[in-house]
Amino acid sequence: MTAAVTITAMLPEHADQVLTIYQHGIDGGDATFETTAPTWEAFDATRLTEHRLVAVDGGGRVLGWAAVVPLSDRCAYAGVVEHSVYVHPDACRRGLGLALLQSLLASTDAAGIWTVQSGIFPENTASLALHARAGFRVIGTRERLGRHHGRWRDVVLVERRSPAVF
Q: Measured between alpha carbons, how far is 141 from 71 in angstroms, rounded to an integer?
């Protein structure tokens, strides 16, 4: 990662750039079942404020983001979240995804979150490699989990258990 990039808290003023990056990921076809980025209000309402980060260059341009949503509102799952990490296509292969993910894990570890998980399409080999580098393990593959653009898609479930909690 270049020295001019800072990982910082995601703020409302980052909204347009965050959602644009999300839409780029959606448009690529292998990042999510979503077909369009949500409104900022919907995004803001579902992601945990204390675990939302952006990678920003020296000019204030958002190059990537990471955030978590609670897995469930049941108290037994209070320490389990599902995360997302997205990098602008123009900023890929610069170490931003790993920097964002490591910062996100530091944040969730400090908060006592014991499991961070995600579902990744098997075709998204870059994301699978990134998660392996960040210490995630593959739990299994959920076959034909959902239809996406007219075809069934598998999802590889990955998780990382916090060494701070266990």
A: 18
Residue 69's domain comprises 6-117
DSSP class of 133: H
Q: Could you tell me if residue 21 is left (phi over 0), alpha (psi between -120 and 50 degrees) or otherwise beta?
A: alpha
CATH code of the domain covering residue 48? 3.40.630.30
pTM equals 0.93
Question: What is the three-class DSSP state of 101?
Answer: helix
- Based on the structure, what is the number of domains in the chain? 1
The residues that bridge with 151 in the sheet, in sequence order, are: 148
Q: Which residues lie closer than 8 Å to 12 by C-beta, 6 or more apart? A: 40, 44
| CB of 109 closer than 8 Å to CB of 162 | yes
Alpha carbon 91 to chain centroid, angstroms: 16
CB of 22 closer than 8 Å to CB of 37: yes
Ranges of the chain whose pLDDT falls below 70: 1-3
Two tokens, residue 116:
């961070």
Secondary-structure breakdown of the chain: helix, strand, coil percentages, each rounded to the nearest 5: 35, 35, 35
Predicted confidence at residue 3, as pLDDT, reads: 62
